[in-house]
Every structure is written in structure tokens, then in C-alpha cells.
Design a protein that fits this description.
By secondary structure, the protein is α/β, with parallel strands linked by helices. About 30% of the residues lie in helices and about 15% in strands. The protein contains 22 helices and 24 strands. About 55% of the residues are buried. The structure holds 2-acetamido-2-deoxy-beta-D-glucopyranose (3 copies). The site of one 2-acetamido-2-deoxy-beta-D-glucopyranose has 4 residues, from loops.
């Protein structure tokens, strides 16, 4: 019998649906300490008035070894005798609540969630308060879905690996190639997600994948979206089939790569976003990666986990493995000879939670074989249980929680959708505007030919690690609000394998007042497991652009949708292409944001968070070559604007506006003295090599105060990002230049603003020597702010060098 074939069946289904969604809306049962469960609700670990550390110790003291080991995995088992339910730790919220990961699903009262632009686009806004605001909205929606029984409270986002190679399919997920930008993004987004209620967590975020991990990999289950609807067993089954088929190749690559990661690159590039995430963002979790660093798998390395993340950075939270990486270092990397040794090594190194079943299967035997003490398991559990307590999971009824009232009404609200639109507007980058062709005019440009494989994009606009969007505004819909649209695809898809649709596209360009070509990439070209092999546009896209531009009656504007950079040399100087916008993957409201910028409703202010290289850059460059620094003798070009000096299509930080902004230094010191700690002040050795060890300097409060006046000399109000770069005194350790601070300001047409920045000397003006030691080079540092330069001399205060 077909569903709904009779009136009775359909009304029955409607009632059933209403009943089920009523259940969902009413909320989930308590995870632990259910007030109605008289046998457990009086146990000491349920007492909300007690200290969390005491509650955690009490709970651990009640667990048997068998119960404990089953709590060491993402699919944590229930402990019914203590009134504790099972919990799925794995949820994702990279740029909106996502259904990648088994902890979250959509449906019922929660058909979708606000889908913000992909992170690379949001990073281009260089607006830290926007990043935090997005985090707040995402965690509102996440809490609402948790209350409705559809999501977890532990989100394995953001991804803060450095976008090191332009081909990387996951570069789109990251905040770009600069460590300070990525670190600031991480800290801001995490603060927004976790809330600012002291030790209490709204949701728990996670910075991943630690560390030196930015190769194509298998980690996500993005292509298994459909499995979110099937049972967990089938999910894992498919997951592992896929995993097994892919990992051999990946791990041989990861191993090769790992041998080349230098301590210097780790300290001044790869670790920076993680350190900032932990120390400034106070993140509740860090995920270790699959790869080895200097011969040790990151998830088995006590130096990385116990010493650095927990010890030096003082993580208040749990360390989780990337999915099945413990199994991987045993079975694929043959790092240990037995599975019990692998389990023991991981936990002893500081791992608290395993994504995958490995620790639940082998940890008990590891204890029995004497490889691991139960105290070490308790230590791991105290880290995970503390996070669950901070989330309020042991505080009884969810609806009594501070965020317990959030529900379906708080998801996809008008304000949230508006923020998704605002984020897209702020992230869009104007790359070219020949003869001020943009903005278009309402009066003169009434009919627009909108052409290209991304002209009707919807799902493409949300990139990967997304969920189900509330709704979409495609480019044709967005532009349709301003003008009459003549729509032509031009290419069947972004691969653009033939020219069959060219004629209609060319015709439409002849008829319209202006032409907008919406081109670029999608997940079929760049994705998890899919690095690009080229930087140029796929297939016949270039031909379509050039043929359409020749036929266009009015100006031709290229709108490029992509996560990674594209070699646009062919149109950069082509007079027939009037303007170019890079929109990244602009999220559910992308089309509206594009149209607002095209018509000048919004003045673009985004800046590129990564270098746009010409195609030649990758010609002889292996993606697995991890070194950041160039090596001219080996013909190695180096990576990112910090170390690569060759030609670029567009540099890091590039982006135009409909206004002009002029900078002048209002106030900045030219000399700065660095005081040394006690005994180092009298030791000549401290300054040998003309650089002071950061650990020897009195860093607290040591900052370079710079005031810059920004004048908007244009006729439109606009937002401008002040990027401050520094070039340290010459020396082999240092980058060419590096970002040391940024600040976004709104400046009215004709107006001026003084921006004050305090650049922390030890954090940002230091460089890293070959042994990975951070030092402050003495002598002249050059600050670059837009077109201006400022010199400041750093001197050691106690040695009398100032006189010389
Ligand atoms: C745009 O795509 C949607 C599906 O996402 C489709 O329903 C619609 O017909 C398309 N519009 C045009 C003009 O091609
Ligand atoms: C430091 O260097 C000065 C001059 O180079 C020298 O006279 C002095 O003895 C040195 N002091 C120490 C503690 O080495
Ligand atoms: C940064 O983003 C916030 C949130 O959208 C916005 O209110 C603010 O105006 C933005 N700042 C600038 C300078 O554009």
C-alpha cells in the first residue's frame, strides 16, 4: 500500500508527525542525574552545588574498569546502574550546525540550520567580532537542536590547519594561510561557540587537526551524508569500508610528509593557530591528527599532547584523536607491535578520547598486561567528564539549564539568516574594478545576462562540512531583485567539458545591459580527498568567459566561486573583463550578497586570506613537501606570502573597495627597550646572535602601541581592514614579512578614524630559530601598513646597547 493513498492514511501520518515532532520539541531526557530517578539522583556527582572536580572524582570512583574503557570512545556506552546514558561525542559545526558526524541529524522540528559562508570566505572579512558573533548564533542553534534530541554538545570544529598548498581540497575549511589570522579566527569563533559564562560551556568546540596536518585526507564523512539517516551500525560499516580503501595510500603520503616537518616550521607556523585557540580561545578540546611528526604519531606523542597542549598551553579540556588514528598508528604505521601497546601509548601520551572503537576494545587488556595503570585511564576520564559537567550534562533536566529554553523557534531565525547574509557581504573580495565599472546602476543596468555553471548555485554555496541550509538565495535570485535576468548556464557543470551551451550564453550577453559570469569550482573539483591538480579554471570555462566578454553589449563582470585560489592571469589584465569578485563559498544567502555588492548596496571590504599563485608555481612542487621556507639552491619556492617571493596573481591581503583609504602613522615609537629577567640581564650569552630568547624577556605588558589614521577619500562609506606586517632585521630564520596585527574599521565617506593597535612584542615580533626556539631579533623592524613603512628599533634594556 502506498503511503497517503487514502485520506485516512494521510491524516494518520499527519497526526503521527505532529505527535513525533511534539516529542522532539518537548525535549530530550536528562543525560545523567535524572531528578525522577530516585536511585541515582542523590549520588554526590549529581550535586550541582559541589565543585566539578569533586563531582568528577566521585563519579570516577564509582566506575568499574570495564565501564571506564567504554567511555574512552566517541560512541560512549551508557552506565545504567549510575543513571548515565550513552553519548555520541562526534558532532560538527564548521560554519553552521552540520550533519557530518553521527551526533547530529536534521528532521522533524529541525529541518535545517543557518548555513554561514564557508570559513575561507568568512576569514576574508578580517572581522574578529563577526567570527565571534557567528559562533554565538551557531551555538544557539546547536543547543536548540540538543534540547530537541537531534544534536550533541561537543563539536569538532573549527579546522585551523594552515592552508599551506593552494591545491588542498580542504583549504576551503580553514581561515587561510597566515598563522596569526588563523589563530585569531580560532580564538574568536571558539569564544562565540563556547560562550562566556566562566567555566560553564554553551557547547564544547575543538581545534583540529594537531599538528602539521594539511594534506588531503579521509577524515570527514561528508560524502556519507545520507548515512546520517540510517542506523549507526551501517554508518560505521560504510565508514570503515571507505576508510580501509583509502587509508593505505594516505598514510604512505602522510609518513613521507612527516619526516620533513622542521621544528622551526612547527613553532612559527603549524602550532600557532592551536596555541592561540587553547590560550586565547580557551577551547575545550584539541584533536590530534593521523600523521607522524618527527617519527612519532601525533596521537602517541607525549611531547605534543601532555607536554605542549596540556602542560605549556594549559588546555582545560579533552584531547580527542582523529577518527581511528590510534588504530592507524598500530595497523598502518606499525608504530607499536600490539594493539594493547598502541592503546597504552596513546593514553600515556595524553589522549583522552578515541574517535573509533579501538580504545574500548584494547585498553582493558593493556591494563591487564601492565602496560598502563588505571590511574592513567582515570586521568583521561576526568578530562572528558569535566567537559560534560561544564556543559551541564549531569545537572538534571535539560530544560532547567541556562540554555534549556532554546528550541526550534531559535533556529533559522530572521536575525540568524540576516547574519549569514552579512557574513557573505563582508567576506566577498573585489579583485578588479576597471574604470570603476562597479557598482552597477539601477537606472542603466536593467537587464542582466547571468551566465555560468554557478549562476544557479545553491548547495555549492555552502561548501563542505555543511548541514541542511534554512533556505537559499542563488545568484540569479539575488540579481533578480535588482534587474531583469536573462539566465544561461553556459556550461553544464563546473567541469565544463564542452561548448554546447555557449551559443545561447553569447546571445544573452548581446542583449543585456551588463553580463555577470558566475564561474569557478565546487566539491567535484576541490573537496576532502580531492586536491586539485591545476590552479586554472576547469575545462572550457576560460573559453566561455572570453567568448561571452567579446559579445557583451555592456560591462562583463566575473564572479568567481571557489574555496582555493584560481590562476586568473588570463583575465586580470583583459580590458573586456571589467570587474572580478571572489565570493568563496558564500553560504545560504550568497546570491543576495553578490547582488548587493554588484549594485553598490554594500561596499566590498574583504581581503584575500591566501596567496593566489600562477599555475607555474605548482609545476615542480610536491604537495607533500612540507617545508615553509624556500630553498633557492634546490629550486624550492617556499610557501605562503611569508616565505615565497616569486610572482603572484593576487597577494595575501589583497582586496579593493568602492572607496579609497589612505593611511598615516599618527603615533608610534621608534625605539623599544626589552627588559630581561634577573640573571639573564647580566649574561652576555642571552643576546648572542643578536636575538633574545623570548623566555628570557619580560614579556608581560611589552607591546608596541601604534596609532594609524585611516582616511576614506572616496564618496562611499566603507569598511577597511588595516593589516600590519612586520619585516624583522635580516637573518635566515625570519619570514620575509609576517602579519602582526589587523583591525577592521568602518569609515564614512570623507571621514577619518584613528585606529590604535597594541602589538605584543614577544608573540608577534619574535622569530623562530632552527631549533624551534622563539627569539626577539634586536635591531630595526619594519612595519608595513598599506603603502607606508615605519621603523622601530628593538633593544635590550639592561645591556647598555642603547648607547651605541
Ligand atoms: C535553479 O536550480 C533549481 C534547483 O536547485 C531548479 O529548481 C531551478 O529550475 C533552476 N533555475 C533555473 C532558472 O535554471
Ligand atoms: C660581557 O662582555 C663584555 C664585553 O664584551 C666583557 O667585558 C664581560 O666580561 C662579559 N661579561 C660576562 C659575564 O661574560
Ligand atoms: C564586523 O562585524 C560585525 C558583525 O556583523 C558588524 O557589526 C561590524 O560592523 C563589522 N565591523 C566592520 C568594521 O565592518
Amino acid at each position: 500500500m502506498a503511503c497517503g493513498s487514502s485520506a485516512h492514511t494521510s491524516s494518520f501520518l499527519t497526526l503521527l508527525f505532529l505527535f513525533l515532532s511534539g516529542v522532539l520539541v518537548r525535549g530530550r531526557d536528562p543525560f545523567g542525574c535524572d531528578p525522577t530517578d530516585k536511585t541515582t539522583n542523590n549520588l554526590p556527582f549529581c550535586r550541582t552545588s559541589a565543585l566539578i572536580s569533586e563531582r568528577v572524582n566521585d563519579l570516577i570512583g564509582r566506575l568499574t574498569l570495564q565501564e571506564k574503557v567504554r567511555l574512552l570512545v566517541n560512541n560512549a556506552a551508557a552506565v545504567p546502574r549510575l543513571g548515565i546514558k550513552g553519548y555520541e561525542w562526534w558532532s560538527e559545526a564548521l560554519h553552521g550546525v552540520s550533519n557530518v558526524g553521527p551526533g547530529t541529524k536534521f528532521g522533524g522540528a529541525f529541518p535545517g540550520a543557518t548555513s554561514f559562508p564557508q570559513v575561507i570566505t568568512t576569514a576574508a572579512s578580517f572581522n574578529a567580532s563577526l567570527w565571534e558573533e557567528i559562533g554565538r548564533v551557531v551555538s544557539d542553534e546547536a543547543r536548540a537542536m540538543y534540547n530537541g534530541g537531534m544534536a550533541g554538545l561537543t563539536y569538532w570544529s573549527p579546522n585551523v590547519n594552515i592552508f599551506r598548498d593552494p591545491r588542498w581540497g580542504r583549504g576551503q575549511e580553514t581561515p587561510g594561510e597566515d598563522p596569526v589570522l588563523a589563530g585569531k579566527y580560532a580564538a574568536s569563533y571558539v569564544k562565540g561557540l563556547q560562550g562566556d559564562d566562566g567555566n560553564r560551556l554553551k557547547v564544547a568546540a575543538c581545534c583540529k587537526h594537531f599538528t602539521a596536518y594539511d594534506l588531503d585526507n579521509w577524515n570527514g564523512v561528508d560524502r556519507f551524508h545520507f548515512n546520517a539517516k540510517v542506523c549507526l551500525f551501517l554508518f560505521y560499516f560504510l565508514f570503515f569500508i571507505f576508510f580501509w580503501s583509502a587509508r593505505a595510500d594516505f598514510f604512505s603520503r602522510a609518513n613521507r610528509a612527516s619526516s620533513q616537518v622542521s621544528k622551526q616550521d612547527i613553532e612559527d607556523t603549524f602550532d600557532v593557530p592551536f596555541r592561540m585557540c587553547v590560550k586565547e580561545g580557551k577551547v575545550a578540546s584539541v584533536m590530534c591528527s593521523y600523521n607522524q611528526v618527527n617519527g612519532v604519531p601525533t596521537c602517541a606523542d607525549p611531547n605534543l599532547l601532555r607536554k605542549t597542549v596540556r602542560g605549556v598551553w594549559n588546555l582545560n579540556g579533552y584531547i580527542v584523536s582523529d577518527c581511528d588514528s590510534v588504530g592507524v598508528f598500530y595497523e598502518n604505521q606499525h608504530y607499536t607491535s600490539t594493539p594493547e601497546e598502541a592503546a597504552a601509548d596513546a593514553i600515556k601520551a595524553g589522549l583522552d578520547l578515541d574517535c573509533g572503537p579501538f580504545l574500548a576494545e584494547h585498553t582493558e587488556d593493556a591494563v591487564k598486561q601492565g602496560l598502563l595503570g588505571e590511574a592513567e585511564i582515570n586521568n583521561a576520564l576526568s578530562n572528558t567528564l569535566t567537559v560534560q559537567m561544564r556543559l551541564g550534562m549531569f545537572d538534571g533536566t535539560p530544560s532547567a539549564h541556562a540554555y534549556g529554553k532554546l528550541g526550534p523557534r531559535d533556529v533559522c531565525t530572521l536575525a540568524h539568516k540576516e547574519l549569514a547574509l552579512e557574513a557573505a557581504r563582508q567576506g566577498i573580495v573585489l579583485l578588479k574594478n576597471h574604470g570603476s565599472s562597479l557598482p552597477l546602476s539601477h537606472r542603466r543596468h536593467r537587464t542582466i545576462a547571468v551566465i555560468g555553471p554557478n549562476s544557479n548555485a545553491t548547495v555549492t554555496m555552502i561548501g563542505n562540512y555543511a548541514g541542511v541550509a534554512c533556505e537559499y538565495t542563488s545568484p540569479i535570485q539575488g540579481i533578480g531583485k535588482y534587474a531583469k535576468v536573462i539566465h544561461q548556464m553556459g556550461c553544464g557543470n563546473v567541469a565544463c567539458g564542452d561548448e554546447n551551451l555557449f551559443d545561447e550564453a553569447i546571445d544573452s550577453a548581446r542583449q543585456a545591459d551588463a553580463t555577470v559570469l558566475v564561474m569557478g569550482l565546487d566539491q567535484s573539483i576541490e573537496a576532502e580527498f580531492k586536491d586539485r591538480t591545476e590552479l586554472v579554471l576547469p575545462g572550457h570555462q576560460q573559453d566561455l568567459i572570453s567568448e561571452v566578454s567579446k559579445a557583451s553589449k555592456g560591462p562583463t563582470i566575473l564572479v568567481l566561486m571557489s574555496g582555493g585560489p584560481v590562476d586568473l592571469s588570463f583575465v586580470k589584465n583583459d580590458k573586456l573583463i571589467s570587474a572580478i569578485l571572489w565570493v568563496g563559498y558564500p553560504g545560504q544567502a550568497g546570491g543576495a550578497a553578490i547582488a548587493d555588492i554588484l549594485y553598490g548596496e554594500t561596499n566590498p571590504g574583504g581581503k584575500l586570506p591566501m596567496t593566489w599563485y600562477p599555475q607555474e608555481y605548482i609545476k615542480n612542487l610536491a604537495m607533500t613537501e612540507m617545508a615553509m621556507r624556500s630553498s633557492p639552491s634546490k629550486g624550492y619556492p617556499g610557501r605562503t606570502y611569508r616565505f615565497y617571493k616569486g610572482p603572484v596573481v593576487y597577494p595575501f591581503g589583497y582586496g579593493l573597495s568602492y572607496s579609497n583609504f589612505v593611511h598615516t602613522i599618527a603615533n608610534a615609537p621608534t625605539v623599544l627597550s626589552i627588559h630581561l629577567h634577573g640573571r639573564h640581564g647580566s649574561q652576555n650569552g642571552t643576546v648572542s646572535g643578536k636575538a633574545i630568547r623570548v623566555t628570557h624577556a619580560k614579556c608581560s605588558g611589552l607591546s608596541l602601541g601604534v596609532q594609524v589614521e585611516v582616511k576614506n577619500t572616496g564618496s562611499k562609506d566603507g569598511s577597511h581592514t588595516l593589516l600590519v606586517f612586520s619585516t624583522p632585521p635580516a637573518g635566515h630564520w625570519a619570514p620575509e614579512k609576517q602579519l602582526v596585527g589587523f583591525e577592521k574599521v568602518q569609515v564614512a565617506a570623507g571621514g577619518r578614524r584613528v585606529v590604535e593597535m597594541n602589538i605584543h612584542v614577544c608573540k608577534y615580533l619574535s622569530v623562530v630559530d632552527r631549533s624551534g626556539i622563539r627569539r626577539i631579533p634586536l635591531g630595526e623592524h619594519h612595519l608595513h601598513i598599506g603603502g607606508i613603512k615605519h621603523r622601530v628599533s628593538l633593544q635590550a634594556a639592561t645591556l647598555g646597547i642603547i648607547k651605541s
